[in-house]
Design a protein that fits this description.
The chain is α/β, with parallel strands linked by helices. The chain is 38% helix and 13% strand. Helix 4 (86-95) packs across helix 5 (112-124). It is globular. The structure holds pyridoxal-5'-phosphate.
């Protein structure tokens, strides 16, 4: 009989923590900074990476590891790590293989915080990023690669523009140029898209969003597919394929195989930067993931209702929702997001002024103004007045974010109540 693989709904509940006979059925919180050993020899082997085990929670903690293992399983990866935030996850994903003097490519329209990390902060560290439009031609994409290019980065569904990345296409370009594709899969979550199945090599998340789903814990994760062959491009990735003097000359690809990239993040970046998640937050995150499959279904259902309402409203100029049949990326959404994308959508008012957008937001009652997306409670944001306010109109345009764009993150409340709230706000304009 063929082996039965559990569905993702089941994995949301069962993956990660597998209690042995008599152990706690629920994931325990290992609220401990340190772990005890009986001999110097045992501890020394851990410090040499010659054995796996716990010694200090900045590097690894059993609660955090169980949750990382759950997300790894959901994404179909080989190894995973929780980080203190989504920002830390994307920073680690890039900095693990880019040094000063290196270059990478990111698609534009990505989350403002990630854009700033790549365009400003990494630049100060000597790492250059070229932003390329998701609509770029093959020639334009290829022209962005240089001999020192080390990776390509994209978001499955962009925040805030709700554009869909053609993952297979970008993976094709990355691989043809000997580098991995990193995909931030925060918006669809593995319930609605598993980028590794489409060729992504590394997946990141802001677990602060749908994975937690309760708006309670800032967090992130990096998941390694284990599929990228670093040794086949050894000259590009010396940090993985040449001896690490801080671990007695250990070579990550030789010692850890499919987990090389992930072990290097833990051993070097988590050690030196300390962007670890607390076990308490990891426990709450796990709690959230247990209902992820149910929540995503409701987010999609509600978002579709709101999209229909907005499209029929005479005060609305345009609506974009990844998966809507009138959206620019409908064909891509059908391919990558057949069960729906998420609860995030964006739209613009016919009156494009920043003032009117702000008046509309201020008139909402149930839907709150929050610098957040993707949790159980609906919220709204005007990027030009909030998250992206440091960008000029021209920079906004270049980043693929129109000045009039209003982002709605639709939660799991009753859709009729959400529509009533929008209706009364439109009446006040
Ligand atoms: N990636 C995406 C797609 C995001 O939307 C965000 C935050 O909004 C981040 C990364 C950063 O995550 P965090 O706020 O957890 O640092």
């Amino acid at each position: 009989m063929a082996e039965q693989h559990p569905h993702i709904d089941t994995l949301c509940l069962t993956a990660g923590w597998t209690p042995k006979n008599g152990e706690a059925r629920q994931l325990p919180i290992y609220q401990s900074t340190t772990f005890k050993y009986e001999s110097t020899e045992q501890m020394a082997r851990l410090f040499d990476l010659a054995e796996s085990g716990y010694f200090y929670s900045r590097l690894a903690n059993p609660t955090c590891d169980a949750v990382a293992a759950k997300i790894t399983k959901l994404e179909g990866g080989a190894a995973g790590l929780l980080t203190s935030s989504g920002q830390a996850a994307n920073f680690f994903a890039v900095f693990n293989i880019c040094n000063a003097g290196d270059h990478f490519i990111a698609t534009n329209g990505i989350y403002g915080g990630t854009f700033n990390l790549f365009a400003v902060t990494l630049k100060k560290m000597g790492i250059d990023c070229t932003f390329v439009s998701l609509d770029a031609t093959d020639e334009e994409i290829q022209a962005a690669f240089h001999p020192n290019t080390k990776l390509v980065f994209s978001e499955t569904v962009t925040n805030p523009g709700c554009r869909v990345c053609d993952i297979e296409r970008w993976a094709g370009f990355a691989h043809a140029n000997g580098v991995p594709l990193v995909v931030d899969n925060t918006f669809p979550t593995p319930v609605n898209c598993r980028p590794i199945e489409w060729g992504a090599d590394i997946v990141t998340h802001s677990t602060t969003k749908y994975l937690d789903g309760q708006g309670r814990c800032v967090g992130g994760c990096v998941i390694d597919s284990g599929k990228f062959d670093w040794s086949a491009h050894a000259d590009k990735f010396p940090g993985l394929t040449q001896p690490d003097e801080s671990y007695h000359g250990l070579v990550y690809t030789e010692a850890f195989g499919a987990a090389a990239y992930l072990v290097k993040i833990v051993a070097q970046l988590q050690r030196d930067f300390g962007c670890c998640q607390s076990p308490q937050n990891a426990f709450l995150l796990d709690n959230g993931i247990e209902t992820l499959h149910l929540r995503m279904e409701r987010h999609v259902h509600n978002a579709r209702r709101i999209v229909d309402f907005l499209k029929n409203n005479p005060q609305v100029a345009w609506v974009n929702y990844a998966g809507d049949k009138d959206s620019q990326d409908y064909t891509l959404a059908q391919k990558y997001l057949p069960n729906g994308s998420c609860g995030v959508l964006c739209f613009g008012l016919k009156d494009k002024s920043r003032e009117t957008a702000v008046r509309f937001l201020d008139a909402l009652r149930l839907i709150s103004i929050a610098t957040h997306v993707a949790d159980a409670k609906s919220c709204v944001l005007h990027p030009a007045s909030h998250t992206h306010r440091q960008l000029s109109d021209e920079q906004l345009e270049a980043a693929g974010i129109p000045v009039d764009l209003i982002r709605l993150s639709i939660g799991i409340e009753n859709a009729d109540d959400l529509i009533a709230d929008l209706e009364q706000a439109f009446q006040q304009l």
